[in-house]
Specification:
By secondary structure, the protein is mainly alpha-helical. About 50% of the residues lie in helices and about 5% in strands. A two-stranded antiparallel ribbon has the order 1-2.
């Protein structure tokens, strides 16, 4: 019954994505004065999650259910953001990077809230409130 809880996998994927995106944003901010450096980013979690539609299948918990294949890891690849047009060729805008960092922190906090809530529901259903 509790062998495959997708809500925990989704919360883990969301937190992992937030950590990876925060690392990219931190690298951008560290290179804000590097001539010729272009800001990098990874796609948002929502976009990555929506793009996994054909790979995500229903889970079979008994033989009468439709059989499914396990979904693989999320393909979060870095991409170069659009250039801002700084005179030294640097494409990093600290203001945009700060806004992205706040967005990523909220995403990570959301993932932790989903995880905590799911643990609470699981404990309640097992009678161990």
């Amino acid at each position: 019954m509790f062998s495959d809880l997708n809500v925990f996998k989704t919360a883990y994927a969301m937190a992992t994505h937030a950590g990876q995106r925060q690392a990219v944003i931190a690298r951008n901010m560290a290179n804000a004065d590097t001539p010729g450096y272009q800001a990098r980013d990874i796609q948002t979690f929502q976009t990555a999650f929506e793009n996994t539609g054909p790979r995500t299948r229903m889970v079979a918990t008994r033989p009468a259910h439709i059989q499914s294949a396990e979904a693989g890891d999320q393909p979060w690849t870095e991409r170069t953001s659009r250039a801002v047009g700084d005179p030294n060729g640097n494409g990093v805008s600290l203001e945009e990077e700060m806004l992205k960092a706040v967005e990523v922190k909220r995403q990570h906090d959301r993932a932790l809230a989903i995880y905590r809530s799911s643990i609470g529901i699981l404990r309640t259903s097992l009678g161990k409130a």
